Amino acid sequence: MHSVTTHTVEESVEVSVPVRTAYNQWTQFKTFPRFTSWVRRVDQVRPTVLVWVVGYGPVHREFTAEIQEQVPDSHLTWRSLGRGPSHRGEVTFRPADAGGARVTVRMEFAPRGLAGALARVPAMTERVVRLELRNFKEFIEGLGEECGAWRGVIRHGHVRPLEPEPPRSRVPTWPVG
After folding, report:
1. How far is 61 from 83, CA to CA, in rounded Å?
2. How would you classify the pairing of strands 153-155 and 7-15?
3. Residues 42, 33 contacting (CB under 8 angstroms)
4. 22 CB contacts (<8 Å, ≥6 apart)?
5. pLDDT of the residue at 34
6. Which uninterrupted H or E stretch holds 131?
7. Using one digit for the tens of pLDDT, what is the confidence trace for 117-157?
8. Could you tell me where the DSSP H helices lie in 11-121?
9. Helix or strand or coil: residue 118?
10. Which residue from 31, 84, 132, 164 has the least number of CB within 10 angstroms?
């Protein structure tokens, strides 16, 4: 039995939009091909399962990922499913200076087979993640606002029921005192 070498990549970027806006845009997975150079297509087959087609030039690879945890305006974690290079990751959204947001992506790779060749070169993977975060920054700052949002919560790979907003009273409130 041989051990699989893993490596971790972590990159951050500050964006000049509020945390809520950055988070909402990030959860619009179908828009990733609009700002990334590696993502060709994303299909959300279930609320927690995404099929990604990634590649550069004529080389493409498809993989399935499961969202394990997702909390609005906080973080999202995932893991790859199936065969091929294994990876897991987390993206966090934190307040930054001047009302912006700090977006941090942390990914752990366990490269396997020929398809894992890129993941075996940590410096290359770091450059790709850094580039794609800069692309996200340009995209969301150019828009100024998100083009959609999903505000649900996922825990342990399962969508949690949305907390209903408390009903608003239709009775006018008068100043007291």
Report:
1. 12
2. unpaired
3. yes
4. 15, 93, 101, 103, 140
5. 95
6. helix 122-143
7. 555 566 778 898 999 999 999 999 999 888 888 888 999 88
8. 19-26, 32-35
9. helix
10. 164
SS3 content of the chain, % helix, strand, coil (to 5): 25, 40, 35
The C-alpha R_g of the chain, in whole angstroms, comes to 19
Whether residue 173 has pLDDT greater than 70: no
Q: Could you tell me the two tokens for 87?
A: 């990876």
Residue 24 pLDDT exceeds 80: yes
Note the pLDDT of residue 121. Answer: 62
If DSSP states are collapsed to H, E and C, what string results for the chain? CCCCCCEEEEEEEEECCCHHHHHHHHCCHHHHHHHCCCEEEEEEEECCEEEEEEEECCEEEEEEEEEEEEECCCEEEEEEECCCCEEEEEEEEEECHHHCEEEEEEEEEECCCHHHCHHHCHHHHHHHHHHHHHHHHHHHHHHCCCCCCCCCEEECCEEECCCCCCCCCCCCCCCCC
Residue 95 CB neighbours (<10 A): 12
CA 92 to chain centre: 8
Q: What is the pTM of this model?
A: 0.82
